[in-house]
Amino acid sequence: MQYFDCDKIQFEGPGSKNALSFKHYNPEELIDGKSMKDHLRFAGAYWHVMRNDLSDPFGAGTANMPWDDGSDSVDNAIKRVDVFFEFLEKTGIEYYCWHDRDIAPELNDLSASHAALDAVVAKLKEKQSETGVKLLWGTACLFSHPRYAHGAATSPDASVYAYAGAQVKKALECTKELDGLGYTFWGGREGYATLLNTNMKRELDHLAAFFHMAVDHAKKIGFDGPFYIEPKPREPSTHQYDSDAAACLNFLRQYDLMDHFKLNIETNHATLAGHTMEHELTVSAEAGMLGSIDANRGDTLVGWDTDQFPTDIYLATQVMLVVLDMGGLTTGGLNFDAKRRRESHEPIDLIHAHIGGMDAFARGLKIASAIRNDGRLAKFVDERYGSFNSGIGADIESGKCSFEDLEKFAFANGEPTLASGRQEMLENLINEFI
Ligand code: XUL
Ligand code: CO
Questions:
Q1: Mean per-residue pLDDT, 157-163
Q2: Is the shortest distance between the CB of 305 and ligand 1 below 6 Å?
Q3: How high does pLDDT run on average in the chain?
Q4: Confidence of residue 81 (pLDDT cuts 50, 70, 90)
Q5: DSSP state, residue 294
Q6: 402 CA to middle of ligand 2, Å?
Q7: pLDDT-based confidence at 172, cuts 50/70/90?
Q8: Is the pLDDT assigned to residue 135 strictly greater than 90?
Q9: Is residue 102 in contact with ligand 1, taking CB distance under 6 Å?
Q10: What is the CA(400)–ligand 2 centre distance, in A?
Q11: Residue range 250-276: mean pLDDT, rounded
């Protein structure tokens, strides 16, 4: 039985008027010697594709999911796997990501939930080997169940903490079983609603201990992919400890976790944190810590995590400039952590939505590569710092200068000449390529 009313989506080029085709994403086309699909490493998010019924805080779900009987049965969960792989095959997406509770139901005790996971993981394994699709990362849902209302690894209740540990242990083992390339922690409830009832220091110490246990267990079972932390400032918690890339890096350094973790940066989380995506990617990449990307976008008018599909070519260009500058993604990818609008409720809308995201990133890739090959942007930035290449600047960079040296230089050279930042010229330069 097929549920998506289309054949495998083909590249037809920019002139095509067929909505069910790629205009720019041509998987095998080489950009700077590497195929588009290897640059972009697109992933499908199981939770949005298979489990998001498109409900919002004001209304029920609208999604038409004829394959789903709405039950918590393992049979229903296994049936979804075939539908998900039909979706991956038709879009040509070769990676995917899941939460434990997306792929299998949480049943009334931990061992029943574990058994349900084992059954679905066996099915996923079979489909992976049949299709060559790979698991980009797995994660445990430590935020939906009421037991996690006060947090999981930052819960004030040690028995909740232990339950979360058992859940992550199992999710990590399932990730390993499926040859997953990474494992993500997104701490939706690892934060607080009010400081009145919160001991922040103890909660952060507990969170770090939890991550160290994850690292130890990974070693034990031979999982060697990176762990990712996915920063987000708020929603659902009022304040989340992993609020942005800089906060995560500080935490990882403080607790000696830098060697085992990287960051998974999501566009809508960056903007909720009051940053641009470009900023969050740059902070991560410059620390050598950019691991993976959750590709979506927010809405300028709605101030929540709307998880829209990334169709903005300018934004995709900025993302791909950072990715190309750092030499490309290795274990990570571009995971469409994005959902359709509530009004786009038919299965085929899932295909349209992903085509849009893939085409936008294909354009972003081509444009970013052209900007880099042109070289004017990089040359401008290099020259802007040219005064640090020799003389007093070189002495500053090599740590040879004292304040006395700076004072001597300032007295001798007088008032510096102000150079232009040329922001508008550079914005025009980028637009030349878009
Ligand atoms: C929530 C979010 C999550 C993580 C995985 O905002 O982005 O779906 O990506 O838990
Ligand atoms: Co995400």
A1: 98
A2: yes
A3: 98
A4: very high
A5: E
A6: 46
A7: very high
A8: yes
A9: no
A10: 44
A11: 98
Beta-carbon contacts of residue 135 (< 8 Å; ≥ 6 apart): 95, 96, 97, 98, 124, 128, 175, 178, 179, 180, 181
Q: Is the pLDDT of residue 303 over 90?
A: no
For tokens 């508008």, name the residue. Answer: 424
Pairing of β 191-192 and β 239-240: antiparallel
Give the C-alpha separation, 311 to 99, whole Å. 25
Residue 421 exposed, middle or buried by CB count within 10 Å (0-12, 13-18, 19+): exposed
How far apart, in whole angstroms, are the C-alpha atoms of residue 364 and residue 292?
Answer: 17
Q: Is 48 a catalytic residue?
A: no
Is 354 one of the catalytic residues? Answer: no
Sign, CA torsion 66/67/72/73? positive
**pLDDT tens readout for residues 273-293:** 999 999 999 999 999 999 999
Give CA 430 to chain center in angstroms: 25
User: Which tokens is 25 given?
Assistant: 């994403």
Query: What is d(CA 35, CA 47) in angstroms, rounded to the nearest whole number?
Result: 28
What pLDDT shows up at residue 178? 99
Residue 225 has pLDDT above 90, yes or no: yes
Query: Which residue's alpha carbon is at the smallest distance from atom 3 of ligand 1?
Result: 186
Q: Per the residue annotation, which of 102, 294, 305, 307 is the catalytic one?
A: 102
Protein fold of 10-374: TIM Barrel (3.20.20)
Domain ranges of the chain: 10-374, 377-433
